Amino acid sequence: MKLLVFAHVPPPYHGQSYAVKLMLESFGGNRRNPAPADGTPDRFGIECYHVNARFSKTLEDIGEFQGWKIFLILFYCLQAVWCRFRHGVDVFYYVPAPGKSVALYRDWLVMLVCRPFFKKIIFHWHAAGLAKWLETAVSIRMRSFTYQRMRDADLSIVLSEFNRRDAEKLTARRVTIVAGGIPDPCPQFETEILPRRRARIAGFKKILAGDFQNANDGDRIVNVLFLAHCTREKGVFDAIDGVALANEKLAVGKSPLRFRLTLIGAYASGAEEQELRNLIRQRALQSTVECLGFVSNERKTQALVTADLFCFPTYYSAENQPGNLIEAMAFGLPVITTRWRSVPEMLPPGYPGIVDPKSPGQIADSLLRVAVTDLAGPLREMFLRRFTIEQHLAGMAAAIRSVEE
């Protein structure tokens, strides 16, 4: 089966671009490039012809209107049409926009130019919230034009049950749920990571119970990790406020235990970065909050191993199934996150670390509660059961091949 993949790969780096990169590599790479010497097909029987439809150079560019992007869209569309006739590709794979006007205009133009040339259309919904946005935030004319261009896809692949409504809003002929997945980043979990997590929890319980005479400085620090784009909607300001409030409660109780927050991730704008740094300085949190920015994979892995808690209080408008939560679960890292979009579906039933969006007080309470709760095993089990790369690729391959049946 031949598949035209009209989607971009990093840079810029975010969950969607990384997922497309993994899929392409696993399905045998881009067949527009020279074929492997042995000419053997990939194990899934899908030949990908990739148009790297990159419309933004940086995180600040994403979703912003720039005149040159119109010509870039047309250029990518011409590549897709050329592949249709040059390589005989008749199935078109596309990632629809979230609820943003400029991104939706891009979808209109791509569908207007490309859709008539392809027999089958597959949408892969990485973002969530388009259905509600169309119902509540746009004009009837804009909504109608979206339906005309994007309705009746042969297949819509969604990441979660919550995400299903976006595909159904545009009357997809068939909707399939395929959860995201990543390669296992810590196969040594049982022998190295789990014992450390449980030893740290036991130490925190002793300190909170008043037995801290033999505890060194490192034993008295609960390391909290925020790993995402450092933006307000991703919850970085709420994470800072939550950690500060938790420390205030510990100080009132005269406990020597303290939370320390590490922020890893790029900034979407210089203005927001400056606002964040000003907040840390004004509240004298320099010893409590460390900003590392974008780091290497090795440094990120080290942070996931040494962290005690993962705090991600997102309310990002297009959030769906964030890859950073999947990574945290793979490391058995207890998570504090929000009751938002598809996020609760990712976690075990009755999970104690879910809070309301924009609620630093709830974050503080949850930090204190989860720090002494053994959640490493259940979270790791959830990763193995639902979010491995093998399960994801098998589901994607079966869904894509089904459009030809």
CATH topology of the largest domain: Rossmann fold
- Average pLDDT confidence is 92
Order of helices and strands: EHEHEHEHHEHEHEHEHEHEHEHEHHH
* CATH architecture descriptor name of the largest domain: 3-Layer(aba) Sandwich
Number of helices: 15
Radius of gyration of CA atoms, rounded to a whole number:
23 Å
Short recap of the structure:
This protein is of the alpha/beta class. The chain has helices at about 15-25, 70-85, 100-115, 130-135, 140-150, 165-170, 190-210, 235-250, 270-280, 295-305, 325-330, 345, 360-370, 375-385, 390-400; strands spanning about 1-5, 45-50, 90-95, 120-125, 155-160, 175, 220-225, 260-265, 290-295, 310, 335-340, 355.
What does this structure look like?
With 405 residues, this protein is an alpha/beta fold. The longest helix is centred in the middle third of the chain and has 20 residues, at 189-208. The mean pLDDT is 92. It has helices at 15-26, 68-86, 101-114, 130-136, 140-150, 164-169, 189-208, 236-252, 270-282, 297-306, 323-330, 343-346, 360-370, 376-386, 389-401; strands at residues 2-6, 47-51, 91-94, 120-125, 155-158, 175-177, 221-227, 258-264, 289-293, 309-312, 335-338, 354-355. The protein folds into 2 domains: 2-182 and 388-404, Rossmann fold, CATH 3.40.50; 189-386, Glycogen Phosphorylase B (Rossmann fold). It has 15 helices and 12 strands. Helix 1 (15-26) links the parallel strand 1 and strand 2 (47-51). The chain is elongated. The N and C termini lie close together (11 Å). Helix content is 43%, strand content 14%. The chain has a 6-stranded parallel β-sheet, sandwiched between helices.
